[in-house]
Amino acid sequence: MNNIIIGTAGHIDHGKTTLIKALTGVDTDRLKEEKKRGISIDLGFTSFKINPNKTAGIIDVPGHEKFLKNMLAGVAGMDIILLVVSAEEGVMPQTKEHLDILNLIGIKKGIIVLTKADKVDDEFLEMVKEDLRAHVKSSFLEDAEIIPVDSISKRGIDLLISKIDKLTEEFEPKNLNVAPRLFVDRIFSIKGFGSVVTGTLIEGILRVDDLVYLYPKKIESRVRGLQVHSQKTDIAYAGQRVAVNLSNISLDDVQRGDILSSNPNLSVSMMLDAKLTMLNDISKDLEHWDRVRVYHGAREILARVVPLESDILAKGKSGYVQLRLEEEVSCKEKDHIILRFYSPLETIGGGIILDSDPEKHTINTLNIVEKLSLKEKGTLSDRILQLIQSKTVLVNKEILIKELGDEASKIANEIDLMLENEELIEVAGLLIDTKGLDNIVGQIQKQLKYYHSKFPFRAGASKEELRTKITFKLKPKEFDALMNFLESKSIVSMNDQYVSSYGFEVCFDDKALALKNEIESYYINNKTPLQTDKIIGNSLESLEMIHYLIGRSLVKLSDDLFYDKLLIEEYQSIVKKYLDKNGEVSIKNLKDETELSRKYLIAIMEYFDRIKFTKRSGEVRISYDRN
Fold first, then answer.
1. Is the peptide bond before 216 cis (omega within 30 degrees of 0)?
2. CB 423 within 8 A of CB 434
């Protein structure tokens, strides 16, 4: 069964709490002052057995304007609204304000309940109904049932219950495939058990013994116990009112508005990007840097507004804004928010979060409106591409799932489809879009063209040098994987640590060929390593030819010391012989075998260390693979 939360809304003294008592037998006014004054001050909670097989949670909200902040703390997670209107008074200011808030918060279903119907005659009742129809036109309640009731005699209550029962069947299943999130709206302590938080489980599944975090402080805790509808349980599902007993948490660690989740990577930010819709009849337009109160879940945060399309967001209009918060908040994209002016307290609009951890930007930020429009209206594949294209690094699936905030399996499936359609390329587990890949390829080809022109005798640019020349910030292993991918696509060629354009070959004219033969003859005819400047000087052509011969007929031992490759292979065989026989080899051993000086043998052995053939152990060398 799909779990449902039912909430009340309406003006003060229109009978919300009395209606809940008629439905459930429970008086949700729990505070002494509520009993004394006869009005609801804070949220009230109970459960409602709709039929023998179906139980819903109920949240009763205060109707007085003074306690609207508490009303706002309760609306997050409501599924069905009972808009309570007194048949004696009809629509009143808080009726309208509550209805505006419910529209802005994205509520889709509800019933209009005309309480105190026994106090008026049928003609007056019909007149109130007509007035109600006019007020709810173009709202989510436009086609809602209007049910007159008398909560004292319970006339009409059975009909109301049957309508609620029918409405609960119209909901899609809640999202259980994401990490649980619970908006904390009540905190208390029980002797012998410790701290307990209650709230509506917005999404996911919560289990006893789950490792959880309280955001935005990200305080770690563990679920000691759970209750749903006042009954102990080992598991709670999205759409339920849940009491959570937490271990190692004091009452000072948690406050109303915190978010409880098992996700260790929820974003925490001092800024939000949002799409706002302003109410039509507010006292003034929303202007740049206005101070506002932002309501998210059960929390109120102060913020400054930065409109991103013009300096003013006019009444009745919609637009993109950035909210600069005065304290940290944790939320997800597509979460709803409500805005009120800081002073005077007036509900002015609401909307959805498009980026829960954005960079700072203003109306002058390039393409910001287009980017936010894509976040708002784009498909999942559009949003995946936008996120990847906004990065200067390659990203993996885990980062995309964290930043997109959607169901993990849904994102993973979409990525697989995009890989199949070649909209994305995967390199060593990292993702890049085809446009980004074309950008990288263009940069690499430009760098290699320049390099081959400047150094025509070299096999190519070093990987490390090339890596630092492109705008994408790639780690060495990531760059290696990318180069291997490009080589498989015949875009580049690789030779050890060097990269060249695919098909590039060093071409020698007669002069260059003579220089090559001259240099090689020096090394072939000498049994000792030689410094280049002592045999051929330091001309640019000579040094470039040396670079070309490295890896072919020469081996580089140090910055200016080179040796014939065949001789190095011969010495490597001598070292291997000692290692196989004795397990180690010393400079003295090699001096006896090769008649080279200690200076050159040290250079050769350090080269063997660098290529991971040997490693030093005190005064001797051992095999690199030896433990």
1. yes
2. yes
**Distance, C-alpha 455 to centroid of its chain:** 45
d(CA 159, CA 148): 9
Which residues are registered as beta bridge partners of 86? 115
Within 10 angstroms of residue 598's Cβ, the number of other Cβ atoms is 11
| Among candidate residues 124, 118, 163, 162, the one with its CA nearest the CA of residue 145 | 163
Nearest one of 310, 240, 306 to 272, comparing CA atoms: 306
* Structure-token pair, residue 351: 């909307």
User: Tens digit of pLDDT for each residue in 45-54?
Assistant: 888 899 888 8
Look at the chain and report how many structural domains it folds into. 5
Same domain, 537 and 606: yes
**Would you tell me how many other CB atoms lie within 10 Å of the CB of residue 458?**
19
SS3 376: helix
Query: From the CA atom positions of the chain, what is the Rg in Å?
Result: 36
b/e map 31-48, b = 16+ CB within 10 Å: eeebeeeebbbbbbbbbb
Give mean pLDDT, residues 411-425.
90
CA distances from 439 to 224, 471, 480, 562 (A): 52, 9, 17, 38
Q: What is the CATH number of the domain that holds 26?
A: 3.40.50.300
Residues in the chain: 627
Nearest to 61 by CA among 138, 21, 9, 99: 9
Among 251, 58, 308, 39, which Cα is nearest to 164's? 58
Q: How far apart are the first and last CA of the chain?
A: 61
Flag whether pLDDT at 34 surpasses 70: no
> How many whole angstroms separate alpha carbon 46 and alpha carbon 186?
13
Q: Which two tokens stand for residue 589?
A: 């051993």
pLDDT at residue 36 tops 50: no
pLDDT at 229: 87
Residues 25 and 145 in one domain: yes
- How high does pLDDT run on average in the chain? 89
Q: Please choose, from the candidates 277, 279, 319, 322, the residue with its C-alpha nearest in 3D space to the C-alpha of residue 304.
A: 322
* Cβ(170)–Cβ(108) below 8 Å: no
Answer whether 242's CB lies under 8 Å from 191's CB.
Answer: no
Last residue of one domain, picked from the residues 214, 233, 261: 261
Give the bridge partners for 339, in sequence order: 294, 349
Residue corresponding to tokens 């020469």: 554
The CATH number for 185's domain is 2.40.30.10
Sign of CA dihedral 529, 535, 538, 544: negative
Same-domain status, 305 and 354: yes
Domain-terminating residue out of 145, 168, 191: 168
* Alpha-carbon gap, residue 273 to 467, rounded angstroms: 34
Strands (E) across 342-464 are located at 346-355, 424-427, 430-433, 461-462
Query: In this structure, are residues 360 and 271 in contact, taking their beta carbons and an 8 Å threshold?
Result: yes
Do 385 and 467 sit in the same domain of this protein? yes
Residue 533 is predicted with a pLDDT of 60
Q: Is the peptide bond before 62 cis (omega within 30 degrees of 0)?
A: no
Residue pLDDT, tens place only, 496-514: 778 999 998 888 878 888 8
pLDDT band at 536 (very low <50, low <70, confident <90, very high): low
Residue 176 lies in a domain: no
Give the structural domain span for 111: 5-168
Name residue 275's beta-bridge partners.
320, 352
